[in-house]
Specification:
There is one protein chain. The protein is built from 13 helices and no strands. It has helices at residues 2-28, 51-60, 67-79, 93-127, 133-146, 150-164, 184-223, 228-235, 240-251, 253-278, 283-293, 296-324, 326-331. The protein has 332 residues and is mainly α. It has a domain at 100-293: MetI-like (MetI-like fold, Orthogonal Bundle), CATH 1.10.3720.10. The protein is globular, with a radius of gyration of 24 Å.
Length: 332
């Protein structure tokens, strides 16, 4: 057991080191210069830099050093927890990410939990009687929904819920220029206002994830129909709902948890697009602006945060396998 754990840690440590290297070189493959004002979104698109100011910035950000020296400086700063200083915003990268992180995490967690719960329920309903009309209708609808990109779902909800019905705001994470006052009631009012603004973005990501979870759960559920324990449970006269919740669902946990971890990467990439469509002040919006400005420190921090987050979830999923699968635990 200890040997397996050490092997797992070593494997993910090697992956993390590979991610760090890719994270360093990937922003530098972008065309353009982060200090070039003519790029339109650089340090200052209106005022060109003087030669002396440009030389000072190049020296500060190590842009005039060889690529290996830049890599060594980046690794040294990363070991100390220093994510650098933004080129385009003149602020510490860590502060920029901390300010935007709650918005993105709120969208990720709410949409992922909703899509997992609703998609799992629909998949079990469809796969419990495979081949029936209910199965065909639900899977056809899920297949069509899964083929629609997140930005099209976002635009459809925006046109319907914000423009057509005017139930939700067009953009932003909260109502601007609003004095919420003080006390607990102000916190509640602001929380409801933020939830009102995030309803359409969260619904966009949840709809995209529901279809994926439903398709996976349906296949897993259909494959369990002829298992001996399921036949024995029905022979005892147990209610179908009890069989599904108490017997089938626990046996479906390993593949569903695996897909939950894999889905995190897809939801994260979708959140970047959705935040752009709805102008949510999250990491996605920050990433789009950093790409336009060729802001290497911000891009490196965002890529590193998202990649290591996906790796961490995958690592936790693998650690949970022995608890979710008693057979694997007994073998080990």
């Amino acid at each position: 057991m200890l040997r397996d754990f050490l092997w797992l840690c070593g494997r993910y440590l090697a992956l993390a080191l590979s991610v760090v290297l890719v994270n360093f070189f990937l922003p530098r493959l972008l065309p353009g210069d982060p200090l070039d004002f003519s790029s339109g979104d650089g340090l200052d698109a209106a005022v060109p830099l003087t030669a002396s100011a440009r030389a000072e910035l190049e020296a500060y950000y190590h842009l005039d050093d060889p690529i290996l020296s830049q890599l060594w400086s980046y690794l040294g700063d990363l070991v100390t927890g220093d994510l650098g200083f933004s080129i385009s915003r003149s602020a510490p990268v860590g502060d920029l990410i901390l300010d935007r992180l709650p918005w993105t995490m709120s969208l990720l967690l709410v949409s992922l939990l909703l899509s997992a719960a609703i998609g799992t329920a629909l998949g079990m309903v469809a796969g419990w009687r495979p081949g029936k009309r209910r199965d065909r209708v639900l899977m056809s609808a899920s297949g069509m929904l899964a083929a629609i990109p997140e930005f099209l779902i976002a635009i459809g909800l925006l046109l319907g819920g914000a423009v057509g019905l005017a139930w939700f705001p067009l953009f932003g994470g909260e109502t601007v220029f609003t004095d919420w006052g003080g006390g607990p009631s102000s916190f509640v009012r602001r929380a409801f206002d933020i939830a009102w603004h995030l309803t359409l973005p969260a619904a966009t990501l949840a709809l995209a994830g529901v279809a994926a979870f439903a398709l996976v759960t349906r296949d897993v559920t259909a494959g369990l129909q002829h298992e001996p324990w399921l036949v024995a449970a029905r022979a005892k006269g147990l209610d179908e709902r009890q069989i599904a919740v108490r017997h089938a669902l626990p046996n479906m946990a390993p593949p569903l948890v695996t897909f939950f971890g894999l889905r995190l990467g897809g939801v994260l990439s979708g959140a970047l697009v959705v935040e752009r469509v709805f102008s949510i002040p999250g990491l996605g919006q920050l990433g789009f602006q950093a790409i336009g400005a060729r802001d290497y420190p911000v891009l490196q921090a965002l890529f590193l945060l998202s990649s290591l987050g996906v790796l961490l979830v995958a690592f936790l999923v693998e650690l949970s396998y022995p608890r979710l699968d008693p057979g694997r635990r007994s073998d080990r």
